[in-house]
Amino acid sequence: MDHRRGWPTPDHPSRPVGVRMEQLTGLDAGFLALESATSVAHIAGVLVLDPSTSAEPWTFDRLTRHMAGRLERIPVTTRRLATVPFGLDRPYWVADRAFDLGYHLRHISLPPGSGREALAEQVARIHARPLDRSRPLWETYLIEGLPDGRVAVMTKIHHAAIDGISGQEILAALVDLEPDVPVPDEVVPVVAGGDVDQRVVLGRAAVRLGTTPLRMARAGVGLARAVPGMRRSAPTGAVAPRVPFNAACGPHRRWAYVSVPLADVKVVKDRAGASVNDVVLTMVGAVLRRWLERNGGVPEKPLVAMVPLSVRPPDHDGSVGNFITGSVCTLATHLADPLDRLAEVRQGMRVVKEQAGAIPASVLTDLTQVAPPAVAALAARLVVSMRLGPRVPLPFNLVVSNVPGPPIPLYLAGARIESHYPLSVVGEGNGLNVTVMSTNGMLDFGFVSDRDLVPDLWDMADTVRPVLDELLAATGPA
Questions:
Q1: pTM for this structure?
Q2: What would the 3-class secondary structure string for the chain be?
C-alpha cells in the first residue's frame, strides 16, 4: 500500500502529527459561509463492521478507548474554530482547551429486526443536523442493531476541515492491518493548548489586507498564463439542463447505499480501454437516465456532473483543509446505448484532465485566497439567503466524487471493516450527490439527496448493479 497517503503498512506505521495554530484557506472558509438553515457542509462516512473478529466484546466502551488512544495522530479532532475580530481575516484552527471526547462520541441502537432502510433513515437524520461550531467540528456514532450482528460507525466532519483524500488519511490513523492490536485500558484525558493571542491574529490580518492588491495581481497573472490551455481544452455547452432535483433544498435528507465488486468495474475498464472513474461516471449517468425516464423524461441535453479533482501536493505536511478543484463533465444521459455513453464520458474526462493540467495548482490556490474574507463571506451568505441556486443557469446538475480507498482488509478496534459508505453535501439548486469509495475490493456508493426532491432514492441505488451488468454485457467478448 502507498504509505505516502497515510495508510499503515508493516514498514510505514501511522505516526502522530504535531499540533499547531493553522489558518483556514479561502476554500475552507467558503464551506463555512455556505451553511444555512437548509444546508449543512459536513461530509460523513459509515463503516459497516463485523465485530466477531475482535479479541474482546466490541462495545461502545471499547470504541471510546480506541479513539482516545488515536487522537494524537489526528490533530483536527481536538481543534476548534477561532474567528478573527470583525471578520478581518479567515478563521484559525486552534487547540480546544475544553476538549470533551464524550461529547463527540454517541451511542444509538436501531429497533429489533431493522434492515438497510432503518440504518439509512437514522444516518440521514444525523447527517442533516449541523455541527456545533464552538467545539471541534466532528461527531462519531456507534449504531447497533444491524442484521447478522453487524454494527455501523458513522463519523461526520466539517468540509472546512477535510476533503476526500485527507478524510482517508484520518481513517488511516484509526485502523489497523490486524484485528489483535491492543486497545488502551482507560481513557486518558487530552490536555490541549492555550487561547489565541488576538494581537497576533489582528497583526496577521493587517498584513494580509495590506498585501491583497499584490496577491490579486499575482493570481491574475497566473490565471492569464493558464488561459490559452484552458481555451484549448474547455468543454462546450456549459449550461446544464434543469431536472427535478435541481431546485430549492429543504433541511432534511435521504441517504441510500449499495456496493458492487470493483473487479467487475475493472473488467469493463479493461475491455473499453477506459479508467475506473470513466466507468463509475458512466454508471451514474445510466442510473440517472433510468430515473429520469420514470420522473418527467430525459432532457435532450446531457446531465453534467461536477467532478472534484485533488490538487494536494505529494509532499504536503499533513495540513487539514481542502486541496481540491472541480471540473464539469458530461454524464451522456442523452445517449441510450451504453457503449456510446461510455465513449462520450471517456472523451469528456479526457478534456477535464487536459483542463486541469492547464491550470497549475498554485494558481487555483491563489484564486481562493485573494478575496477579502468579509467580502467573500457576505457574498456566500447572499447566495444562500436569496436562494439563487434554483434561479440561475446551472453549470452542473450534481456532484459525483470517486475517492480511492484501501485495497486490503482493515480493522477498527479489532472489528473487520466490510464497507465504507460515503455521504457528502447537497445544496441550493443541486439536491443530489453521489460519492463512491473503494474499500477492499468493493465500490461502495452513497446517494444523498434532499428528502423531498428525491423521495425514491433507493430506486437509484438499486439500479447500480443492473447498469453495471449492462456494461459488462455490452463490452463482452461477443
A1: 0.84
A2: CCHHHCCCCCCCCCCCCCCCCEECCHHHHHHHHCCECCECCEEEEEEEEEHHHCCCCCCHHHHHHHHHHHHHHCHHHHEEEECCHHHCCCCEEEECCCCCHHHHEEEEECCCCCCHHHHHHHHHHHHHCCCCCCCCCEEEEEEECCHHHCEEEEEEEECCCECHHHHHHHHHHHCECCCCCCCCCCCCCCCCCCCCCHHHHHHHHHHHHHHHHHHHHHHHHHHHHHHHHHHHHCCCCCCECCCCCCCCCCCCEEEEEEEEEHHHHHHHHHHHCCCHHHHHHHHHHHHHHHHHHHCCCCCCCCCEEEEEEECCCCCCCCCCECCEEEEEEECCCCCCCHHHHHHHHHHHHHHHHHHHHHCCHHHHHHHHHCCCHHHHHHHHHHHHHCCCCCCCCECCCEEEEEECCCCCCCEECCEEEEEEEEECCCECCECEEEEEEEECCEEEEEEEEECCCCCCHHHHHHCHHHHHHHHHHHCCCC
